[in-house]
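Bumping with the actual sequence this time:
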Amino acid sequence: MLAQNTTQNETTVFGASVSDQSTNPPHTFSDAEEAEMANADIDTQLRHAAETGNVEKVRQLLAIPEINVNACDENGCTPLYEASHEGHAECVRLLLAVPYIDVNKSRTYGMTPLLEAIENNHPKCVELLLTAPGIDVNKGDVVENAKRDLHSLTINRFLAGMGASIPKNTYKKHGGETPLLMAAANGHAECMKLLLQDARVDVNRQDRDGETALYMAAANGHASCVRLLLSAPGVDVNMARMDGNMPLPDDFSKTACGFLDAMYKNVHTITLCHPGFTPLMAAAANDHLGCLNLLLSDKRVDVNKCDVHGNTALSLAKKNGNTDCVQRIREHPECKPCIRAAIKRNKTKLFYLLLLFLSALAIMVLINV
């Protein structure tokens, strides 16, 4: 999940007291919708009151013995989900006081109340949710989009496995982002600070692309989050992405011809992806000098580590014309030219040329059959 660079705003957030930073406008309803809601069943009214932040209405409805606090709408949204999404902390507090509330209940595509509170930058709600009994602090949005085309998925997974850059929304919608990963991707340092204070949070948990919270923060230029994560106990500063490890569908052979056709048509447009990228490489490749400086200041960082294509942070910065990053990496006392990496890159290029030749040959054979 990529987010816009919010480094300028983060300096005012880092280390501050817990407060909601979201600028999202509150959810409002028309008069007609409000009138319709007044005649709805009590469970629907509770969701509506939680969504609009009507604290008194929530309190009144929770006093009704027949109320079902876990009732959801057609999208799987519960009252707790709605209140967390909108940032209504007092409603969240009232709902969490119900003994049988399901704090981990997710909506249709896997988003939980905790994930929603973090994505929309509601630290007060995050703080309340983390204290709820039974809260799963590492539960991610792992449900994939069931409507995608299977054959397109097969081709894209195979291309991604070879190192081709495929837009993420062509082969997955949600990628297993945990609350910590969500905070890192969006640069929500306040929420991250709260999460890192919880010993149950897995700081090295990876999503379906193999990205860690540190990788996401570095790739998106969120220096405040990088600083927080580098100080977290047990963080692996060199953990790399795992692109290409996704299993292929069982019926891949049925789409082999489609793959070869796609490969032939896209041979001049595909670019290398990021298998083996470390947080340092992500910062260098994306010209995030602030994140790069923080990472290089950590003695645990391997400045010469290579990805599966033989790229280092230095070579990636040079390739992308990030001159400030190149200079900073060269100033590192352990930085050295990676001859082995250059050899590995040449071998990789030869492999792809051979693969393209064989693919073209296979297509010609299929045409003549």
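The tokens above came from a reply further down the thread. The chain has 19 helices and no strands.
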